[in-house]
């Protein structure tokens, strides 16, 4: 019952929170929008200023001397029928008198230019200005740059936009936001025919706080949510306003739809909750199992290191004793060979345990794979099991890889050793009277491929998922570190991979390494 009650009460609480969140998102959206539009207007005006500035700096343009032939040609070539300024372009003197214009009857405003604040500031400070020739009903926007000679303003180039709408094309519609562009002195430039809501006294004073903090503003008794931004490089103010009542009505409709959907899907939510709870429980159990395995592997690594060092100490004594036996005359070599074989096996075990406990870093250099395989093959042929298993080799020479020779030899040795030992076990159990191991080294495109294939029956199907796990043993011999070491060694080489494939009657292990180069 509590759950059902919460299911019906929660939408009302969520509604209130949704309204606040939606208003915050709307204000953020309006702030981003007005910022982008203000930057666009500033960039547009900056482009116009740059075009005028380029010509104003031309040494041939000297307005103080009047309109000369070269100057007229320069101006007409640059601005005749230009598309940048829909109202035209004019060259005027420092006291606001027309020297040249295109078109010739281009208006320069109803009042003298010298009465304009932006004109006086430009002459005084020698900086480009953007201002209005006429601020009523959209007005004429003027972009002007001074022509400076000998550190004084001798004239100015002025481009006009026939209407302020060219700065900010407006989209009309019942659901559109209101956009207002105000001039430097707070006069409304856009829209050209403003609604009564924007015919407010002190409009600029009401909108200017929205620059620092977007929020609510009341105009003509209507509450709006809005944001504002200053147009870079000008004194213009751009504001975007949204009707708060209309937005709340949209939120109410959305709430009613959510309420109905929430009620209809209550059963599905409960079912989904149950499923997610069970999945979370399984994930928790899996994470605990993974943690337990990591702790176990860490403990095994420590134990492996201790065991390996003890085995190596014993091996050192055995090898010393074997050297003394071989030195005596008349001793038979058969027992010595048997002892050496077992010592080699124990040495391989010690190296495997040490590699598992403390993986060594790779020392890469250019290696010829044929030689590495031959080195590993000589060691494998000394195994007692190798006498009962036929080893067939097809090794392509001249294939070079960039890798760690020790790791690569260890990986190759482990794969061939496993195959030989598996063949010997298959022969001893009568499963395969003629065990065989095929070793191939070849090039496949941009890769060196090393393949070890046997006919010893293959890995038991039940053991395949654990094939690459440390200490997972699928036969009577070994400690289960060979294949994990192979994978670790091969993956330490960028682009290297090792895979297992079941083939008729046996197994195939494939190692792929990036080809460094081929012998010429």
In short:
By secondary structure, the chain is an alpha+beta fold.
What's the story with the biggest beta sheet?
Answer: 5 strands, antiparallel
Structural class: alpha+beta
- The tally of helices reads 10
Low-confidence stretches: none
Form type: elongated
Distance between the termini: 82 Å
Tell me the number of strands.
Answer: 18
Q: Strands of the largest sheet, in order across it?
A: 2-1-5-4-3
Order of helices and strands: HHEEHEEEEEHEEEHHHEHEEHEEHEEE
Portion of residues in helices? 40-55%
- Please indicate the percent range of residues in DSSP E strands (runs of 2 or more): 15-25%
Using only CA atoms, what is the Rg? 44 Å
> What oligomeric assembly is this protein in?
single chain
Mean pLDDT: 78
Quickly list its features.
520 residues, alpha+beta, 5-stranded antiparallel β-sheet, 18 strands
Please outline the helices and strands.
Elements (H helix, E strand, L loop, with lengths): L1 H55 L12 H11 L8 E6 L4 E5 L14 H9 L3 E6 L5 E10 L2 E10 L16 E5 L5 E3 L12 H5 L7 E5 L2 E9 L6 E7 H21 L1 H62 L5 H25 L7 E4 H13 L8 E6 L3 E5 L1 H24 L7 E9 L2 E8 L27 H10 L5 E7 L2 E9 L2 E2 L2
Parallel strand pairs: 12-14
Antiparallel strand pairs: 1-2, 1-5, 3-4, 4-5, 6-7, 6-10, 8-9, 9-10, 11-13, 13-18, 14-15, 15-17, 16-17
Helix pairs in contact: 1-5, 6-7, 8-9, 9-10
